[in-house]
Specification:
Blueprint: H1 3-16, H2 18-54, E1 60-65, H3 86-91, E2 98-113, E3 116-125, H4 129-133, E4 137-140, E5 154-157, H5 159-166, E6 175-178, E7 181-189, E8 194-195, E9 198-199, E10 203-207, H6 208-214, E11 222-227, H7 233-248, E12 253-257, H8 258-301, H9 303-311, H10 316-352, H11 362-388, H12 392-397
Parallel strand pairs: 3-10, 5-7
Antiparallel strand pairs: 1-11, 1-12, 2-3, 2-6, 2-11, 4-7, 5-10, 6-7, 8-9
Helix pairs in contact: 1-10, 2-8, 2-10, 2-11, 8-10, 8-11, 10-11
Length: 399
Amino acid sequence: MRITDSIHLASSALLTQRMRSFLTVLGIAVGIAAVVLLTSIGEGVHKFVIAEFTQFGTNIIGINPGKTETHGTSPGIFGTTRPLTIDDALALQRAHFVEAVVPMVWGNGQVEAQGRSRRTTIYGVGPEMPKAFRFTTKAGRFLPHDNPDTPRALAVLGSKLKQELFGTRNPLGQLIRISGNRFRVIGVMEPKGSVLGFDLDDTVYIPTARGLELFNRDNLMEIDVVFSEGTPSAEVEKFVKRTLIARHGREDFTMVTQEQMLEILGSVLNVLTFAVGALGSISLVVGGIGILTIMTIAVSERTAEIGLLRALGAKQSQVLLLFLGEAIVLSALGGITGLALGAGGAQLLHLALPALPVHTPMTFAVFAVCVAAGIGILAGIFPAQRAARMDPVEALRAE
């Protein structure tokens, strides 16, 4: 039996049972579409979150007060934690590879100006914050270097807060009240948008020392250290650890590099993407069972045809490939259709919900079609073997 004859027989069988073939293709298509759609959403969220974190660069180390590791024993009188201070931040600026150090404290408060008021986030930060986090000033200037002991009451507004309080009026030089304390506006930031749900435009920046006074704190909530590109993060960690231990007498702080954060975050998001893909793959199992059922029925219905083919000289391998080819064609058609439905559905979903990120890599497309073909092989191999092993005489007698 020639290859052209096999193709003609397979296509004739599929076209003869159009409804059965359509339902089989639909079963695989729904499974592939579900996998592609869900993994597109998972991959889109993955890329979105990673992009949110990396927009500030990857050469950042965050230092927080307190040691998060547990050694299984009570710290007793030696467990006191010395707070992080502005002096600690100044000490970390001495290394040649340190580009910026930002001491930070934050909280919520009422901001009032021009007869308007708004409750918003207040950040007490150092003057190097724009350099560290890639912010730019739209008007005026950012907070200057001040003596930490006598900081001036200066404020820089986020773009949204400026619009809420001053509208189209120029806020530079104007006085505002933050939690009842007077501050003079010296700058307005460029719009930055939201990062992981935090609106960086609806905020006000004041000097760190003023923030400590405002929130009645004697310690910083975080110190961020930005180091030069090309410097190994391990070297920076050693410097930070050595400097702060010398000042505190013990390691009572926790360091987290951006690389570590991205690695952990990437692992969590990969598991999420795999999980949603696994949920969608349940539909593929159902589609595979559908192919197995359809091909088993087809073999039973075409017993006489199989006997005739064998009687005319068709080999077992040719009969096997004939029925296996039909299963692969059905699953491949289902895979291509499901890919189109899944990718198209992902884009339509993004158009309907622009805030929902989606991304369908080409590797997913190739993988989806390969998976569909694999399902066809696995589901069709048993019926095809059954057809190939039939005794020609017994098969003809079945008519």
